Amino acid sequence: MSIQIAGAPCCWGVDDPKNPYLPPWERVLNEASQAGCQGIELGPYGYIPFDIPKVTKVLTELDLTIIAGTIFDNLVDKENIENLIKQVDDICSFITKLPAAPALKHHQYQAPYLVVIDWGHEERNKHAGRPEEAPRLSEQEWKQMIHHIKKIAEHAWNNYGVRAVIHPHAGGYIEFEDEINRLLHDIPHETAGLCLDTGHLYYSKMDPLEWIERCADRLDYLHFKDIHLDTYHQVMKERTRFFEACAKGVMCPIGQGVIDYHKIRHLLTELNYSGYVTFEQERDPRDADTSLEDVKQSVDFLNKLGFANELKARNR
Question: Beta 251-252 vs 226-227: how paired, if at all?
Fold first, then answer.
């Protein structure tokens, strides 16, 4: 088994590039390196500037690579497809020219990836994590979204050799058990992979262990999160929107929440998972002063759990 661990800018509260409180991208990369990460995601579209020489210089100095870029946008509406394809071009032409992540043996699709997430629907966001209440897409809307995802995936692969991985996300139209099952039926693995997120699965009333095992042959990439159980119960009771829940601290460092990562580590060993895992801890960017400490705690926990050889920790 060969697993590489990476971080993500959302650990510093970077989810919306228009948020005025975001920390500078250079600080995020610097602190990710200090915490022991050797890879990091690009973050939301437009956060890190599309300046290849400048970003390459920073990454090289910090011994970091970019593991993935992300489309976090409305995948449903027909009028948004031109914008989505532009994002594919901008992101993929950028990440494929940055320092390359290490190739992993026995892994069919190598980094960097294009993580594809549906987002931007208030009627779903306000029901995040509540499958019994959230509205579903009509048959026509679902088919339209699937068509858009296929176009994104095929454009990324055919033009840039970048593998698209679909990420079920709380508050979007690909979130709950019925929707993930339908997605797996409608999009073959040769078109796009799957990026399961342990935190989003738990948040949306699914068992991460069960779903990792169930979808093992479709997994190209994984996200790790952990959930503070008391806060989770509180935000569910208060019917809080997803990122408002994150601002209240529903996400915590890996190993300090409700998700059993000892069992997940054992399962990944049994499945012989050979790929990348990115850990995340969404928060309000105004709380980013504790990000370095929290990220270091997540890295240390994963190291102690048995990812030490794969992490190649910086304390060597």
Answer: antiparallel
